[in-house]
């Protein structure tokens, strides 16, 4: 992993998702995109952006007096780190236990089952 951290809160994930979809963006544009999905104030969103910059998950460039934010870490890398953290915390690192629990307790369609089989066959 790079020096950036994926140890981000659920709220910070929402900010990152906006910037993973399109970047760089100003805080105003991030706020505009998030205000329809959340009840957060602009100040709250700006605080989340500031935290993400401090965690080195976001970078910032100043252009014509405006800060433009962009991800320093990929969504895939964050997903991988979050998955590994969850796997360690909940299943003691056992992928087999996670999959067994998932398959036993989830309603899987034939398509889901075939996709899982295809993934395993590729390994």
From TrEMBL:
SUPFAM superfamilies the record matches: Winged helix' DNA-binding domain
InterPro entries to which the protein is assigned, alphabetical: BlaI_family, WH-like_DNA-bd_sf, WH_DNA-bd_sf
Keywords annotated in UniProt: DNA-binding, Transcription, Transcription regulation
GO MF entries: DNA binding
Pfam families to which the protein is assigned, alphabetical: Penicillinase_R (PF03965)
Domain of life per record: Bacteria
GO biological process: negative regulation of DNA-templated transcription
Family statement: Belongs to the BlaI transcriptional regulatory family.
Name by which UniProt lists this protein: Putative transcriptional regulator
Species whose genome carries this gene: Desulfosporosinus acidiphilus (strain DSM 22704 / JCM 16185 / SJ4)
Phylogenetic lineage: Bacteria, Bacillati, Bacillota, Clostridia, Eubacteriales
């Amino acid at each position: 992993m790079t020096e950036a951290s994926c140890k981000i809160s659920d709220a910070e994930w929402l900010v990152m998702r906006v910037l993973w979809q399109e970047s760089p963006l100003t805080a105003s544009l991030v706020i505009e995109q998030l205000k329809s999905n959340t009840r957060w104030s602009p100040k709250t969103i700006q605080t989340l952006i500031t935290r993400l910059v401090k965690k080195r998950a976001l970078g910032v460039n100043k252009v014509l007096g405006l800060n433009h934010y962009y991800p320093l870490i990929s969504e895939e890398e964050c997903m991988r780190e979050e998955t590994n953290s969850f796997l360690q915390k909940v299943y003691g690192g056992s992928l087999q236990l996670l999959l067994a629990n998932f398959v036993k307790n989830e309603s899987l369609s034939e398509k889901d089952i075939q996709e899982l089989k295809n993934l395993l066959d590729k390994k």
